[in-house]
Amino acid sequence: MGLLDNTITDRAPRTSHAHVVAAIGREIVRGDVAPGTILPGDKELSARFGVSRTVLREAMKTLAAKGLIQPKARVGTRVLDPVRWNLLDAEVLRWRVEAGLDDDFVFDLATMRLAFEPAAAALAARRATPEDIARLREIVGRLGDARHDRASIATVDLEFHLAVADISRNPFMRAIGSLIEAAMAITLKLSSPANDPALIAEVAVNHARIVDAMEAGDEDATREAMRAVIELGAERTRKALDRWIAGPALTG
């Protein structure tokens, strides 16, 4: 079962094009096809997926745009090294999470969020309207619902962070939504607070601090409150990942 099965980010392909992209993309990101490998030709892949060559070629263009492959005349389509993958692409990032988690990936994802989200929060403190503050207060109210399950609390948490990016009025900040969504998916898998009403309440309080500082127009305090939320979540995730990895050894 994939890490994102039944989560807020799980999406089934709806077209032949999307099916081919997802199937080949997942195989590459999982490591089933090693970097440097030349993929089978159009005829073989068309037969495998039961699609026309036109559909297949469009799918290959999509995968190339994601940095996963590089078509080359008289050579074929080569699988690229992971350093070339566009991890800001929502699908590539989702496939990477599905492929498996490790401390480095969790750390790198948190580092990226820390580079952007506190800055977005500070901008939001400068630009938020009373209506924006009311919107965030309403989300925080729902975030603190003790009846949450893993999926529902992750969905509301994601809504809050994307709302802050919206309120920053900076389109580049909103464009990192896939990073935030990946973090929510990891939380959902490993370290959701939904199992403990006290942790749910703590999450709501910590997010309310962001809104309090934003409403006061204190950019520094808003930045630090957001930083604290991200760092706390990343630390919980790392600890949960360590327990998850050690689990088989401890029980075997």
TrEMBL record:
<dbReference type="InterPro" id="IPR008920">
    <property type="entry name" value="TF_FadR/GntR_C"/>
</dbReference>
<dbReference type="InterPro" id="IPR011711">
    <property type="entry name" value="GntR_C"/>
</dbReference>
<keyword id="KW-0238">DNA-binding</keyword>
<feature type="domain" description="HTH gntR-type">
    <location>
        <begin position="14"/>
        <end position="82"/>
    </location>
</feature>
<dbReference type="GO" id="GO:0003677">
    <property type="term" value="F:DNA binding"/>
</dbReference>
<dbReference type="GO" id="GO:0003700">
    <property type="term" value="F:DNA-binding transcription factor activity"/>
</dbReference>
<dbReference type="InterPro" id="IPR036388">
    <property type="entry name" value="WH-like_DNA-bd_sf"/>
</dbReference>
<keyword id="KW-0804">Transcription</keyword>
<dbReference type="InterPro" id="IPR036390">
    <property type="entry name" value="WH_DNA-bd_sf"/>
</dbReference>
<protein>
    <submittedName>
        <fullName>DNA-binding FadR family transcriptional regulator</fullName>
    </submittedName>
</protein>
<dbReference type="InterPro" id="IPR000524">
    <property type="entry name" value="Tscrpt_reg_HTH_GntR"/>
</dbReference>
<keyword id="KW-0805">Transcription regulation</keyword>
<dbReference type="Pfam" id="PF00392">
    <property type="entry name" value="GntR"/>
</dbReference>
<dbReference type="Pfam" id="PF07729">
    <property type="entry name" value="FCD"/>
</dbReference>
